[in-house]
Write a structure and sequence with these properties.
Blueprint: E1 2-11, E2 14-24, E3 28-33, H1 40-48, E4 55-60, E5 63-64, E6 75-78, H2 90-98, H3 106-116, H4 129-142, E7 147-151, H5 159-176, E8 179-184, H6 187-191, E9 196-201, E10 204-210, H7 211-216, E11 219-224, E12 239-245, E13 248-253, H8 257-266, E14 271-276, H9 279-286, H10 294-297
Parallel strand pairs: 3-8, 3-9, 6-7, 7-8
Antiparallel strand pairs: 1-2, 1-4, 4-5, 9-10, 11-13, 11-14, 12-13
């Protein structure tokens, strides 16, 4: 488990992360979503040990990562801005990582390189952006980490390689009981693989909850009547986003859904349709009273 307690990081007069506390369990895929500059990368770099927090604590399995730096060998960080030396190959990078990561597995390295169709002897600078990401993912998984940190790590991957990477991560997580943290500005990228998602807004955690809890506790109703209706017939329902267009009505409900359905049925609609809310709709609803720039988040 990774536990982040009251962590803050500033650069001169700019606060990049402000008093954030979260927990990422074992066998969990935790998504960090937020626009560019929200603090996702800074948070990941602190977990990885690239940056030191100004205050707060980061622990892996109950051990303070900065008091016991050897624990960082159990983490692998795949940054958004990959860098490889001009003459480096996957083979030379594997040799480099083996000097730092005691659990580096040559067998895993060769099997994964073959699976992705990567030549371990070719210079990495000659690889495409997507191939470089695949190479770094192969190297990262070969260290057999307890936790893997991914920063926009699906950018540049074609759909087939993206699906392969996601499957490998989920299989590895299930087999090794590891923690996976994935940061992205694209909620759609995270929705189909994360079991937990947090939204960083203004360098703070605005929403932090399990995906199942979000999906199972909210829905949208779409109703049709034989005549125009007065919204007062829905008194007793805690709804949001009420819209009426003649004889058609729609709204979302996040509390006491079954009770809401009884009140709706009593209003004698000719049609009742109930839909689960998408993650995008849930985040929009939760943040409707803020100044969050969703155009950047969902683009």
């Amino acid at each position: 488990m990774i536990k982040i307690s009251n962590v803050t990081k500033t650069f001169d007069d700019y606060t990049a992360v402000d008093n954030i506390s979260i927990e990422i369990g074992n066998s969990s895929v935790y998504g960090l979503v937020g626009y560019n500059g929200a603090g996702k990368t800074t948070l990941l770099k602190m977990i990885a040990g690239v940056y030191t927090p100004d205050s707060g604590k980061i622990e892996l399995d109950g051990v303070d990562l900065f008091a016991h730096p050897e624990k960082k060998q159990e983490l692998f960080y795949v940054p958004d801005d990959l860098y490889f030396g001009a003459a480096s190959s996957m083979k030379s990078m594997a040799k480099f990582y083996k000097s730092y990561y005691p659990n580096f597995c040559d067998e895993t390295f060769h099997k994964l390189a073959e699976l992705f169709g990567l030549d371990i002897k070719k210079k990495l600078m000659g690889f495409s952006k997507g191939m470089q990401r695949q190479a770094e993912m192969v190297l990262g998984l070969s260290t057999l980490p307890r936790a893997i940190l991914l920063d926009e790590s699906f950018d540049g991957l074609d759909p087939a390689k993206r699906n392969l990477t996601k499957k490998l991560l989920l299989d590895y997580m299930a087999e090794k009981n590891c923690s996976v943290i994935i940061s992205s500005h694209n909620l759609h990228e995270l929705a189909d693989m994360c079991d937990h998602i947090a939204l960083i807004d203004g360098q703070r955690i605005a929403i932090d909850c399990a995906v199942d809890d979000m999906n199972g506790s909210r829905c949208k109703f779409r109703l049709a009547y034989t005549q125009n209706v007065d919204k007062n017939i829905f008194n007793g329902i805690e709804y949001k986003n009420y819209k009426a267009d003649g004889k058609l009505v729609s709204f979302t409900v996040s509390k006491n859904i079954e009770e809401a359905e009884k009140i709706i049925a009593a209003s004698n609609p000719v049609l009742i349709e109930r839909f689960p809310l998408s993650l995008e709709e849930i985040f929009l609803e939760e943040m409707e009273d803020t100044n969050y720039d969703f155009e950047k988040l969902f683009s």
